[in-house]
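Subject: mismatched residue count in predicted assembly?

I count 480 residues in my input, but I want to confirm that the predicted structure covers every chain. Input:
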Amino acid sequence: MHTRTQPTVEEALAVLETGFERGYIVVLFGRCRVEYDGRAASSLAAGNRMLIAKPDGAILVHTETGQQPVNWQPPGCTHEGASTNGELVVRSKRETPAEQLLVQFERVDHAVAYDATGANDVTVTGTEADLRDRILDDPSLIEPGFEPRVTERETPAGAVDIYGKDEDGNVVVLELKRRRVGPDAVSQLNRYVSALDQELHAGTELRGILVAPSVTDRAERLLEKRGLEFMSVSPSSEDE
Amino acid sequence: MHTRTQPTVEEALAVLETGFERGYIVVLFGRCRVEYDGRAASSLAAGNRMLIAKPDGAILVHTETGQQPVNWQPPGCTHEGASTNGELVVRSKRETPAEQLLVQFERVDHAVAYDATGANDVTVTGTEADLRDRILDDPSLIEPGFEPRVTERETPAGAVDIYGKDEDGNVVVLELKRRRVGPDAVSQLNRYVSALDQELHAGTELRGILVAPSVTDRAERLLEKRGLEFMSVSPSSEDE
DNA sequence: CACTCTATCTCGGCT
DNA sequence: AGCCGAGGTAGAGTG
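Triage response: the counts match. Full output below for your records.
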């Protein structure tokens, strides 16, 4: 780890460059302006901020508010530091799509280069995959007699989460969501049902069921209009 | 600004608490485990990481890779630090939805409290709003004779981006996207068109046009199947 | 507070 | 490299 408080431009640059070389996270605290140009374009006037440069090429500029950075570059970018007109300038670029970020420090108050190695594989539960497994484990959560046949069954409109049959032999398509859903989820299910309707030969009864903890009013009306169904199931049995 | 290198638990706690009091961003570098429980649940084994606690209640835990934090809490949470079994523990909570984050530091290598005040209003161009303004400014970008009437016109299925008439007096609904679109955008437009189709009295011709720089193959086929149209326009005239 | 939709969404998986 | 969908999406705007 390297740190510097109230460094000169050269000292801050040294922290930045030795940090990059060693694969450290480099963090600069100071007053800076930020310019971005690429998929969109943005400009940010001077203020005290925190810049985070990661060894995988990601860059984040954080202000005192918000969970999201005010400016950033994704992993895979190449960044470089330079001293320009007495200012520390950090530039980050990538191609495809072409975009670049320019951070100009009028003043650097503190610089840190830190070796942030260690496990970064977080295990998450309560996901859509958990909901899927729960239903495959106990299909009666949907309805008595429901039989899952395939997961991720392909259709011209995309892959259906769970494809199966009901006790009367009708084809059933499930679209799973881990949380309360709005109109977009209904449309998604509808796309799959429409696509399968064309694919399956006529006469086959086809049901589409949206499976989620709950739906909004508008989504419910939309389901009705499209002749689709809803079944309330949560990713975790504890949430019921 | 306050900084401490290789602080004791008490020293790190002091940086944390005086930082919170003064409305500073507090950053801790060290080896920690992270537990989250709320909308989902997650667990992260020990490793060297960076914790960022903002005065608005946001918390971020960053590893050496990725643009996104491995764990976080949104703004509005209350966080507190404590010394437990010789470890510095940071806990962050909120209600609605109930969720909490627990970060346990086996070791703190560096602590910073920084006053990150300053302008945080970034001006962005190339957004959907820019695309809308561009079309309102020159409706012929859609087609000769197109006349915008209302933006954000409400329908039972949601608000239409631009509602207008073509040169033959037909109702035209535009759905705008700032970048290349897939099937979801087609479904969205279709929802609005279907809803308006019921609302407008019979006999009125109704056209739906998806406006974006480009569409994917699947989206194009879906447009065709739904009897919808596409017009290529970018948010910025320079992108064409 | 809940609903709806945009986003430089990011991220992973697959083709 | 592009397409597609999930996400503890976050954030903004509105009712």
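Residues 36, 38-42, 68, 71-75, 97, 99, 159, 180, 182-184, 216-218 of chain B lie near DNA strand D (CB under 10 Å from a C1'). Marking this ticket as 'not a bug'.
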